[in-house]
Design brief:
Elements: H1 2-21, H2 26-33, H3 37-45, H4 51-61, H5 65-70, H6 83-94, H7 99-114, H8 128-131, E1 154-162, H9 181-187, E2 191-201, E3 210-215, E4 225-228, H10 230-235, E5 240-245, E6 258-261, E7 271-277, E8 284-291, E9 294-298, E10 307-310, E11 314-319, E12 322-325
Parallel strand pairs: 1-5
Antiparallel strand pairs: 1-4, 2-3, 2-12, 3-4, 5-6, 6-12, 7-8, 7-11, 8-9, 9-10
Helix pairs in contact: 1-4, 2-3, 4-7
């Protein structure tokens, strides 16, 4: 089902490109999106673009974002002269780098709007006991193992990590009001879906079974996804996970994979790590290497460039303890 939806999205992306730049306009469309032609080829053939790229596609192509994502027109189209749309357009025109945080906000808003209000007639009445009951895996008809009922064995998925070129805020004021990953780590419902995953440990240690648990509504820390991973949790009680966006670490760590990290497991030279730099938009996953006063962030995929930054610009760097994949 998901593969079919992804294929339909890729066809709509190709349609937007053809209607905007013509049958031979891949390079022109990629340039307008601010990405390389090779990266765009991925999006038109197989890979789902990140939210900010989808937003730019809809803007450049002059199409409805709802249609681009789902194939269906928005139920209530907003007039082009809507003040909010005009304000967003001015913001993107003046600061193109604001596309990513704006897209992230829209994602969060969309998720919030999709959940029924507590106490409404549409909200299912559930008790804590219901949350502990094993549920069937989507599409498989199998009962989830009891380990998923043990909340203490859950590793929270706190966001996403880019596996591409590190991007930065041009002005510190633009970062105000954006929730920092460090805040979620420090703070550190009911199940909707349980999905089996495969896990590969960075140090070769046995990790046991891992399941992706998706809640029907955010928990008290606004987290929706968890990895039920007793083996990982037993070794790293403060572990958390991030979902990877991009292919710079492919084939070892692919787009859509989860990486498991711990604040007590700092980055090590020559090993994959997730790094937060001063002024950076989000975080990035790369091979980590420190040399003197510099830190080198190296991709595995040769199509992506290496980057070097001052060592004192690193806010934190945690090594990848495990990679988890569907």
């Amino acid at each position: 089902m998901e593969d079919t939806q992804n294929a339909d999205l890729c066809r709509r992306i190709a349609q937007v490109r053809v209607e905007t730049f013509g049958a031979r306009g891949k390079s022109a469309f990629a340039k307008a999106l601010g990405i390389s032609p090779s990266t765009y080829d991925y999006y038109e053939s197989a890979r789902v673009p990140p939210a900010d790229v989808l937003l730019r596609m809809a803007t450049v192509g002059g199409v409805d974002l709802t249609w681009l994502l789902t194939g269906q027109a928005a139920q209530a189209p907003v007039a082009a002269d809507n003040p909010i749309l005009q304000r967003a357009a001015r913001l993107l025109a003046q600061s193109p780098q604001a596309a990513a945080p704006l897209a992230a906000f829209l994602d969060l808003l969309g998720k919030a709007m999709s959940f029924p209000e507590k106490g409404t007639a549409d909200a299912p009445a559930t008790a804590d006991a219901d949350a502990a009951k094993p549920q069937a895996n989507a599409g498989e008809g199998k009962v989830a193992p009891p380990v998923t009922a043990d909340r203490a064995a859950w590793v929270p998925v706190l966001g996403r990590s880019a596996a591409g070129v590190a991007q930065f805020w041009s002005d510190a004021k633009q970062a105000r009001g954006v929730t920092q990953l460090a805040d979620l780590i420090a703070r550190q419902g009911r199940r909707e879906q349980v999905q089996p995953m495969t896990v590969s440990s960075a140090d070769g240690a046995a990790q046991g079974p891992v399941w992706l648990v998706t809640l029907s509504a955010p928990d008290a820390d606004d987290v929706v996804e968890f990895l039920a991973a007793p083996g990982l949790k037993a070794r790293h009680a403060d572990a958390f996970a991030l979902r990877i966006d991009g292919d710079s670490m492919s084939p070892d760590i692919r787009h859509g994979d989860f990486v498991v990290l711990s604040p007590t497991a700092p980055a090590q030279d020559g090993r994959a790590a997730v790094v937060q730099l001063d002024g950076q938009i989000g975080v990035t996953c790369k091979l980590f290497r420190q040399a003197g006063a510099g830190v080198h962030l190296l991709p595995i995929n040769e199509a992506f460039p290496s980057q070097t930054f001052p060592a004192d610009s690193v806010q934190w760097a945690f090594r990848v303890l495990a990679r988890v994949r569907v």
